[in-house]
Design goal:
Layout lengths: L1 H13 L1 H21 L14 H12 L9 E7 L9 H14 L5 E4 L14 E8 L8 H16 L3 E6 L11 H17 L2 H29 L3 H31 L4 H28 L7 H32 L37 H11 L1 H16 L7 E2 L11 H13 L7 E6 L6 H13 L4 E4 L3 E2 L5 E8 L6 H21 L2 E5 L1 H35 L3 H26 L4 H4 L7 E2 L2 H29 L4 H28 L7 H33 L8 H6 L8 H19 L1
Helix pairs in contact: 1-2, 1-9, 1-10, 2-7, 2-10, 4-5, 6-7, 6-20, 7-8, 7-10, 8-9, 8-10, 8-20, 9-10, 9-16, 9-19, 11-20, 11-21, 12-17, 12-21, 14-15, 16-17, 16-19, 17-19, 17-21, 19-20, 19-21, 20-21
Length: 746
């Protein structure tokens, strides 16, 4: 592989105009496609195989035209102090509002609070339910404006009015913090390279790659039913890995220049060596992201595949466009160790320049060399300190509570959250999470009796406040029953009630041949959490197993990949502990902009396992391949560790800081899922890069010595030789040197 990539790097350097033109053309094509594509609606949220989804599908079949997937709004009214909603003036205001809400062409139906008995017992709070024919993201702005205007008119009449539901669902935004993250990345690159030109190359290529990826996702969003979170995730991961991959190749290019090689040769060798690491690092990320499809949640599958595609683009750009841009930059990208005037020192001539004067001043070992030397001398202490520290950070994960966000997790400044609180105040905490029980009595001899029996059974269960009479369809073979729990939607008590209804349904099935299914947003959230929990272990085995085999091929070792996987488990558990501490316990919540604490999103553990594993293997590949390269070329194990850190620690540190900055930039998002993912990935990169890869990894390798690179002979013969270390390049260079000397003698 190193030889092929070496040739690709040299070709891209020589044919730089052609390489750059291809990527600019792809960016233009993707941009035009995104601009001309129809606007995407709200991504459908389906969970195949769950009872809640089966009930939802049954409703669409048996209740045609009911707009089961349409947007809803709850317009909640509260009377002024000392008054009641049944007072004549307040009642007239509500009825006027209901009539105004019924006028929209997209409105399916509006319930009158006084006819539907939607007035609290104390008479101070009432609500009107508005159902629409289309989803919240498809709702016209005119319909949303009419909803808000009607509420405002009622406010001017003296009532407190808030609107809940998904009808006013807003497109999430990330805010200015995303730009700050990119700015931090730019500063780190300038400090690392000491040159605006060299620092600009990774940023430019990363932005082009993300532009192509996000534009392609936007263009395909309507056809493939992709939500807004999909493009946000692709942008987040694409920026981070795009900058990092380009950073490693540019750094290796500067190191090759420092050894006196010509620029085209240096570009070829940089792509042949660091590019090999980029390919395998990218493969681990792609495996982890595509592997999310095993969970069988379409939304999660689409997010993973879209982000994996953006990572693949980042790899291809790093291998082809970076050497092309290095060709354009020429001598403005200087050899390793030489700084430009930007950092206050005059530029030196390249070491290959005959006019350059060798410096007699002894060079002090860099920080990476000094740190690696310390770890090699004190491996046990460093290992214990790292493991204990990560173990302490992981402790909060033991109290992890999972759930999906609803209006109760919104900031208190939003009308959705205030409506949620008013409904809880007037009707009880369970009113915001009603359960819909669907009774399929098509195979029953007496459907009406089955409907009645189901209602009576549910009334006898614990934590049930209200059970509505059965509402059958026109055919009379299916009915819906609404159940109001006594506890809030995300509570364990409500979860137990859902399971209790389903258990009772099994007995009813035996008696009446009627199927009892529980659905609704609360039941769907419970089913999603259980499905994700059940899929976590198989997913972990699949992704870690595939990556383990890949790393055996890369490092030609058993213990190094095993150590990499165990280190990843430490970092991801510590990161989950940090997420629990901030988003569930509320530690540093003000600093992170978390206005409402609650259960951690159900998708977070499995998503972090996938993404963090891929990113963790990036640093493992980049850092340990330099150690492997030194070991293969004859250095002792301890010295190979120091050599790997001398060449790679500074770059890995810069890459980790950049990735943390990019991820942290998404903490400013208005969407709780994006905010939590941004924080979780940022803290996971910190733990993995600076504790696991920079401390635990060299400590373990120092303790293992030569055993770290042991591989059974039969396996060594069976594995393909991918030559990540560039040994083939070294041999071919030596052969070329022998040929040149032979020609010189003749």
């Amino acid at each position: 592989m190193a030889t092929f990539l070496y040739k690709l790097g040299r070709l891209s350097f020589r044919r730089r105009h052609f390489a750059a033109l291809i990527w600019v053309a792809l960016l233009t094509l993707a941009g035009v496609g995104a601009a001309s594509a129809p606007a995407a609606g709200n991504s459908s949220f389906s969970i195949p195989g769950t009872e809640a989804q089966k009930a939802f599908d049954l409703l669409e079949q048996r209740f045609p035209g009911a707009s089961a997937d349409g947007a809803t709004a709850r317009v909640v009214f509260k009377a002024p102090d000392g008054e009641k909603m049944t007072d004549a003036g307040n009642k007239a205001t509500v009825e006027k509002t209901v009539r105004a809400l019924s006028d929209g062409s997209e409105v399916a139906r509006v319930t009158d609070p006084y006819q539907a008995k939607a007035v609290s017992r104390d008479g101070t709070i009432a609500y009107a339910q508005v159902s629409y024919k289309v989803s919240g993201m498809e709702l016209d702005d005119a319909a949303k404006d009419a909803l808000e205007d009607s509420a405002q008119d009622a406010r001017e009449a003296g009532l407190t009015v808030e609107i809940g539901g998904d009808a006013l669902q807003a497109v999430p935004h990330t805010g200015s913090s995303e730009i700050i993250g990119i700015a931090v990345a730019a500063v780190v690159l300038v400090i690392t390279f000491g040159s605006l030109v060299a620092a600009g190359l990774p940023l430019l290529t990363a932005l082009i790659g993300v532009g192509i990826g996000v534009s392609a996702i936007t263009g395909l969003a309507s056809a493939l039913d992709l939500g807004t979170t999909t493009s946000t995730l692709a942008m987040m991961i694409g920026l981070a890995v795009g900058i990092d991959y380009a950073l490693f190749i540019v750094s290796r290019y500067r190191a090759e220049l420092a050894e006196g090689r010509e620029r085209e040769e240096a570009a070829g060798r940089a792509v042949g060596t660091a590019g090999s690491a980029v390919v395998f690092a990218g493969l681990t990320v792609v495996i982890a992201l595509v592997g999310l499809s095993v969970v069988n949640i379409p939304m999660l599958t689409k997010m993973g595949i879209a982000a994996a595609g953006t990572v693949a683009i980042a790899v291809l750009i790093a291998l082809t466009m970076i050497p092309a841009l290095l060709g354009y930059a020429g001598r403005r990208v200087k050899p390793m160790g030489e700084k430009g005037k930007l950092l206050g020192r005059a530029a030196k001539k390249p070491s290959g320049d005959p006019s350059s004067e060798p410096s007699t001043k002894p060079q002090r070992p860099n920080l990476g060399t000094r740190w690696a030397s310390f770890v090699v001398r004190r491996p046990v202490a460093v290992l214990l300190l790292g493991v204990v520290g990560l173990g302490a950070a992981a402790l909060p994960a033991s109290s992890l509570e999972l759930g999906l966000p609803d209006d109760g997790s919104q900031p208190t400044s939003t009308t959705q959250r205030r409506a949620y609180d008013l409904l809880s105040e007037g009707f009880g905490p369970g009113f915001n999470g009603p359960l819909m029980v669907v009774v399929d009595a098509k195979g029953s001899d007496d459907p009406k009796a089955a409907f009645t029996q189901v209602g009576d059974e549910i009334k006898g269960l614990k934590d049930v406040v209200t059970v509505t009479p059965p509402a059958p369809n026109k055919a009379g073979d299916t009915a819906t029953i609404t159940v109001i729990p006594g506890s809030q939607p995300s509570s364990v008590t409500t979860e137990n009630l859902v399971h209790g209804i389903r258990d009772a349904g099994a007995d009813i099935k035996a008696d009446t041949d009627a199927n009892v299914l529980v659905t609704g947003s609360t039941a769907m959230n419970i089913d999603v959490s259980e499905k994700l929990n059940d899929a976590l272990i198989p997913y972990l085995v699949l992704v870690v197993g595939l990556a383990f085999l890949l790393l055996i091929v890369v490092f030609r070792s058993i213990l190094v990949p095993l150590k990499a996987a165990l280190g990843f488990l430490l970092s991801v558990m510590a990161a989950l502990g940090a997420v629990v501490a901030v988003f569930q316990w509320g530690w540093l919540s003000d600093l992170m902009g978390v206005e409402q604490t609650g259960p951690v999103m159900s998708m977070m553990p499995i998503f972090m396992v996938g993404v963090v594993f891929g990113l963790a293997m990036d640093y493992e590949v980049f850092l340990v391949t330099r150690m492997r390269e030194a070991y293969v070329h004859g250095e002792k194990p301890a010295q190979a560790i120091v050599t790997g850190f001398r060449h790679g620690a500074r770059v890995v540190t810069a890459a980790a800081v950049i990735m943390m900055a990019v991820f942290a930039g998404f903490i400013g998002s208005s969407e709780s899922m994006v905010k939590m993912i941004g924080f979780g990935l940022a803290i996971a990169v910190f733990f993995d890069a600076f504790v696991v890869r920079m401390a635990i990894v060299p400590a373990v390798l120092a303790l293992l010595g030569r055993k770290a690179w042991w591989l059974p002979r039969w396996l060594d013969r069976a594995l393909p030789n991918v030559d990540v270390e560039g040994e083939g390049l070294r041999r071919s260079s030596a052969d070329r040197g022998d040929t040149d000397r032979e020609l010189a003698r003749t």
